[in-house]
């Protein structure tokens, strides 16, 4: 019988709320109370997330964020700073011991990215996994991914770029040297692509989510059943939002 | 003495070091390790920062110290390793 996992469509949320939900699902799944879970979501207002090990003030222009109404948050996962605006964000939470999840961390990145690659293929976009944590299409990055393992549970979240505004992205990111800002912008334009750019048309979020849902089902030979956050997850997310992702102490800790 | 470095680890990620050290003894006072690498568990980075206090700024000493913390606690780095971290720290002296 085909294994059934939970699908969460939580819509658009604040940065702190989004990161709190991922962590809450991780904790509740680790206690065996909810099945492996795949979530698709968006960010309102647009936000920057930084990797766990990054320095907020070195990476992010906080004054410009305030000016443009851009949110910011520190993730529990490593990796780099990401500007989340026109994007489909996914997360997957699953026990480390699950037979579909390779024990080796790098192998498991590749496996989970396989679901996104199949999802992109369902949108008629060819792509491939580029270690350490990117998916590229026509040589350009279309998805970035980051994984953590806590309480013997895997959380991987990542992006599928639907469209990209490199100028806006750089307006809220710090650059090492203002004199090379224009050069950096043109470099990133060369290295980054998006669903819209590849297909030369806008794809509605719902269509992309449907394609990604099928991608996960194909990659892991499972069925995704749409569900809701449990009351415990909602309460835990509120607690995490207050204690971590919405707090100055957490976001400024490095 | 305070000094910073930015170091692209070969085949790895971008490492940024903020180092305070004693110029006379060449010992680390405090070191802050930031960047877009991955470490498992993540809290390991604070442990390494703590363990590097009072360690001499010398290549072999640093590599051995970092590697011993990695081994002792079963840590895993992706996009960074003991050699890369050592290189980034020593770059602060240049």
Short overview:
With 254 residues, chain A is of the alpha/beta class. Chain A has ten helices and eleven strands.
Describe this structure in words.
Chain A has one domain (3-251): BirA Bifunctional Protein, domain 2. Chain A has 10 helices and 11 strands. Chain A has helices spanning 15-30, 56-59, 62-68, 105-122, 166-172, 181-191, 195-199, 205-220, 231-245, 248-251, and strands at 3-13, 37-43, 47-50, 71-74, 82-84, 87-95, 128-130, 134-137, 140-150, 153-161, 222-226. The N and C termini of chain A lie far apart (47 Å). The mean pLDDT of chain A is 96. Chain B is α+β, with helices and mostly antiparallel strands and 94 residues long. Chain B has a single domain (2-91), classed as Enolase-like, domain 1, CATH 3.30.390.50. Chain B has 3 helices and 5 strands, in the order ββββααβα. Chain B has a 3-stranded antiparallel beta sheet with strand order 1-2-3. The longest helix of chain B is centred in the C-terminal third of the chain and has 15 residues, at 59-73. The mean pLDDT of chain B is 96. Classes of the chains: A alpha/beta (254), B alpha+beta (94). Chains A and B meet through strand 9 of A and strand 3 and strand 4 of B.
